[in-house]
## 1
Amino acid sequence: MVVNRRDVLAGMGATAFGALGVITAEKAYAEVHRTSPLQFYGGFASGIRPDLSPPSVPAGSVVWSGSTDTRRVALTFDDGPMPDWTPQVLNTLARHEVPATFFLKGINVQLHGEIHRKSVGTHELGNHTWDHPDLARLDYAECHRQLERTSAIIEQRYGTRPTLFRPPYGHLGGASLLAAAEQRLTTVLWSAQMNENRFEGKPDAIVGSAREAAQPGSIILAHDSGPRNRLITIKNLDSIINGLKADGFEFTTVSDLCGLG
Ligand SMILES: [Zn+2]
């Protein structure tokens, strides 16, 4: 059996509890880890850093919508930039003079970063990890690296460091919340989303569902990369924006909607 740092931490937890020896804890850890995605004993616990030093901040913030007082929403697009869809999204947004928030994968910025070279100042660019892991299954060090590496390349490419972070799948563990807070990133979820799976081949229905889902303050989830069924949102973005405007909605970035920064 390979003993990694997680096993050591698990052993430390067991020792601290005084119930199990280190070897027993390692065996128990391996058994649980093999049969369950859930972790135990500290390795993934929020607030515990690998070197056991105290967290550098006492709390972080998580948002899923903005103020409900005005008819404003934030469109968000995850997983880009990618050359096939992102330019289409940017062109549509430009035609309507609508700002949006893009949650970028670091690896895509490295490969296709030029796509957003004109976005700074119009759109908001957030951190969506380097390569889209399920952060709830990673320990603090790995979560920290996913976020830090992505923020670094966004800053390098666009001259501005992100202040927002969206976890892949909206899936959070304590370690990812801690890593985000320590990097002064606000964690952004969503309160409405495009339902591409339900409305494949039904453009009127996807527009209707977007109009139905949008509420004052909504953060709306969409994607500018991924499986082809998501194209229905991209191809009908004109109609979605027109429909939401007809319903009296204005568009803004997540930070503006949520009064951040
Ligand atoms: Zn994603």
Note: Residues 140-158 form the longest helix (19 residues).
## 2
Amino acid sequence: MADKRRFDLFAELLRTQFPAATRVFDVAGGMGKLNEALSRRGCEVITFDRRHKHLPVTFAEREFTLDEPCACDLVVGMHPDGATRVIIDYAAKHRVPFAIVPCCSDNSMPYKPWMRHLADLATTQGLVVQEVELPMEGRARVILGHPPVS
Ligand SMILES: C[S@@+](CC[C@H](N)C(=O)[O-])C[C@H]1O[C@@H](n2cnc3c(N)ncnc32)[C@H](O)[C@@H]1O
């Protein structure tokens, strides 16, 4: 069972790590609870998820793909399952920062190799990567990435 505090903890981390980022794409956002938590903290958020039942937040009921026009300055995902890699690829393509809290891989890779693979995926696309941990139960490690400061 995922920790119910995860949305507030992640939102707080995002505001601290990326204070200038106020337009956020929340990918694979499920019900939209991270959207709520970020909106309470002054962000404009669009949640992307295939699900139809969700909270009354700004919500795009569709798969998130690399073709999504970039109207954000940060792209994030809490336990984004099959959308984990596309978040990194999207950040690299559009040169925006990203933050993900990975859980399961999309190809049965065990957790630690999956985390290493994701960090490598970001660095090989020219992003600078850092890992931190949220103080919560379950999958709590966060991979943060941003384009290098020129
Ligand atoms: C484990 S749930 C996590 C939901 C939410 N972030 C949370 O922490 O409760 C994974 C979600 O990813 C969504 N998802 C998977 N691939 C996606 C994609 N390419 N685009 C948008 N949503 C996707 C699923 O519909 C599901 O709601």
Note: Residues 111-123 form the longest helix (13 residues).
